[in-house]
Amino acid sequence: MEGGVKGGAGVIKKVLSDELGKVEVTFELDAGIAADSVTVAGDFNDWSEDADPMEREPDGRFRKTFLLDVGREYRFRYVLDGNRWVNAWDADDYAPNAFGGDDSVVRTDDVGE
Predict the structure, then answer these.
(1) By the 8 A CB rule, do 54 and 45 touch?
(2) What was the pLDDT predicted at 40?
(3) Whole-structure pTM value
(4) What does the alpha-carbon distance between residue 53 and residue 108 come to, in Å, rounded to a whole number?
(5) How many Cα neighbours within 13 Å face the side chain of 92?
(6) What does the angle CA 78 – CA 111 – CA 12 come to, to the nearest 5 degrees?
(7) Could you tell me how many helices (H) and strands (E) the chain has, helices first?
(8) Inter-residue contact 37 to 84 (CB < 8 Å)
(9) Exposed, middle or buried: residue 25 (CB in 10 Å: 0-12, 13-18, 19+)?
(10) How far apart are the C-alpha atoms of 27 and 78, rounded to whole Å?
(11) Do the Cβ atoms of 75 and 91 come closer than 8 Å?
(12) First vs last Cα of the chain: how many Å apart?
């Protein structure tokens, strides 16, 4: 996998939602990430580079939570400063994309494991 966010820099948390059939998936990058802005782009938001900006927390971390369907795999990447597409080193898996690289994958079938 090329162009990833370096190890230890990110965490993906998954929790069953109160809404039936949904999982709250939180993407988090630590404060040491070299970016002023970060968005999460994936097949859950039509790969939009600006639809889902991550919030900067008071401690400097970036965080964004999505409500996703249980039992699926979702491809995604982080977009740093609007132009650098990078993968998550803590992703559940990686899948080849049409651009000759890989996308990060998060699965929602393993919540609670």
Answers:
(1) no
(2) 97
(3) 0.88
(4) 21
(5) 18
(6) 25
(7) 0, 10
(8) no
(9) buried
(10) 10
(11) no
(12) 25
Predicted pLDDT of residue 8: 47
Residue 74 is encoded by which pair of tokens? 């979702």
pLDDT in tens, the chain (113 residues): 445 554 447 899 999 999 999 999 999 999 989 899 999 999 999 999 999 999 999 999 999 999 999 999 999 999 999 999 999 989 999 999 999 999 999 999 988 64
In this structure, the dihedral spanned by the alpha carbons of residues 33, 35, 39 and 41, taken in order and rounded to 10 degrees, is -80
Quick check: 87 and 3 in contact, CB under 8 A? yes
Both structure tokens of 86: 């990078």
CATH topology of domain 4-107: Immunoglobulin-like (2.60.40)
- C-alpha distances in angstroms, 59 versus 3, 63, 79? 25, 11, 20
Please give the Cα distance from 68 to 34 (Å, whole number).
28
Structure-block tokens of residue 29: 């990058």
